[in-house]
């Protein structure tokens, strides 16, 4: 039963992701279907009745396929919830022990570059120390380790002054040496030809994706591997697949390993989404993305699991 708590946490995350994916897919597919129908109406007004009918039929096929996938996703959510209930009952009955469970607390900000360069700044006497050999393709010092309270106070000050805003605050739960992942963004449907007239739908993610792997060095010191990828849809380089325009992706990424203790945070800068899209037109985003991460043990190895409530 050592892995029951971790399994429970992962199932909770999986159920949440499934619900989020369902909403994102419905929204993305709805946008594609609306565009197809608008294009069909335009073709009909121009006298291309046959082509207009073909686009309408394509929109119906996309809508039908998405609804089928969403029904499958809902079935998966129901299965996950049944597994969660079963695990709650097992934990309550056994009260077994488990290994150490770790939480990687992540905060993501968009910050004015003029202020992002000097974080943590302020009047604090402790500064961020650069991390050597961070494995970043970005110009140093883009990664550092600093005192948690000093960094947080400076970011709170920038938010209050209107120079920064918090865009996400996920907590990733995992085991020592095992990875935890998060995705903050969306996805859009892509029609993939299968030969002949057959097509299937895949969903391509965009936004911020993060993977973290914490490892213990000593009682209060950790090594943390982080992989970051930030992407935005690129409508200037879209391609036509089966009559549907599919945008490309503009992507920046970084990966590194840092050591920190319980009172410190890793903080890194990278470009925010290269260009944003407003009403179909690219808009330059002047902000920088600042990611802050810390590690905390939330359940020690051998600690007794308390019974969880049932709902």
How does this structure look, described?
The protein is an alpha+beta fold. It folds into two domains: 1-98; 100-304, no CATH class. The protein is built from four helices and 13 strands. The protein has helices at residues 4-45, 49-94, 113-116, 148-160; strands at residues 101-111, 129-130, 143-147, 164-168, 171-175, 180-195, 198-218, 221-241, 244-261, 264-271, 275-278, 281-284, 288-299. The strands form three sheets. Strands 1, 2, 3, 4, 5, 10 and 13 form a seven-stranded antiparallel sheet that branches. Helix 1 (4-45) runs antiparallel to helix 2 (49-94). The longest helix is centred in the N-terminal third of the chain and has 46 residues, at 49-94. The two termini are 22 Å apart.
Give a brief rundown of this model:
This protein is an alpha+beta fold and 311 residues long.
Alpha carbon gyration radius: 23 Å
Tally of DSSP helical segments: 4
The total of beta strands comes to 13
Mean pLDDT across all amino acids: 72
| Rough outline | globular
In percent, how helical is the residue content?
25-40%
Largest sheet: 7 strands, antiparallel
Q: Pick out the low-confidence regions.
A: 94-98, 121-141
Query: Helices and strands, in N-to-C order?
Result: HHEHEEHEEEEEEEEEE
Beta-strand portion reads 35-45%
**Quaternary structure classification:** single chain
Overall number of structural domains: 2
Structure class: alpha+beta
Report, as a whole number of angstroms, the end-to-end distance.
22 Å
């Amino acid at each position: 039963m050592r892995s029951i708590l971790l399994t429970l946490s992962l199932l909770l995350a999986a159920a949440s992701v499934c619900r989020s994916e369902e909403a994102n897919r419905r929204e993305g597919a709805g946008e594609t279907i609306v565009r197809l129908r608008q294009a069909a109406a335009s073709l009909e007004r121009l006298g291309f009745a046959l082509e207009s009918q073909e686009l309408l039929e394509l929109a119906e096929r996309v809508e039908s396929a998405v609804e089928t996938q969403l029904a499958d996703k809902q079935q998966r959510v129901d299965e996950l919830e049944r597994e969660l209930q079963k695990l709650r009952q097992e934990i309550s009955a056994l009260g077994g022990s488990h290994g150490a469970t770790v939480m990687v607390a992540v905060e993501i900000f968009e910050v004015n570059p003029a202020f992002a360069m000097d974080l943590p700044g302020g009047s604090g006497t402790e500064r961020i120390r650069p991390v050597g050999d961070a494995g970043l393709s970005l110009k140093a010092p883009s990664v550092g380790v600093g005192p948690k309270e000093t960094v947080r106070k400076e970011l709170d000050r920038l938010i209050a002054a209107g120079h920064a805003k918090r865009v996400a605050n996920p907590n990733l739960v995992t085991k020592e040496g095992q990875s935890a992942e998060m995705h903050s963004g969306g996805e859009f449907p892509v029609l993939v030809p299968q030969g002949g007239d057959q097509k299937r739908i895949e969903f391509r993610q965009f936004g911020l994706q993060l993977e973290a792997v914490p490892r213990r060095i000593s009682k209060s010191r950790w090594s943390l591997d982080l992989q970051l990828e930030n992407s935005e849809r690129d409508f200037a380089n879209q391609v036509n697949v089966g009559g549907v325009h599919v945008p490309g992706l503009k992507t920046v990424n970084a990966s590194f390993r840092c050591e920190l203790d319980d009172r410190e945070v890793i903080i890194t800068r990278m470009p925010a989404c290269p260009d944003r899209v407003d009403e179909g037109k690219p808009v330059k985003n002047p902000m920088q993305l600042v990611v802050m991460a810390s590690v905390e043990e939330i359940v020690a190895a051998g600690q007794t699991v308390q019974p969880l409530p049932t709902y």
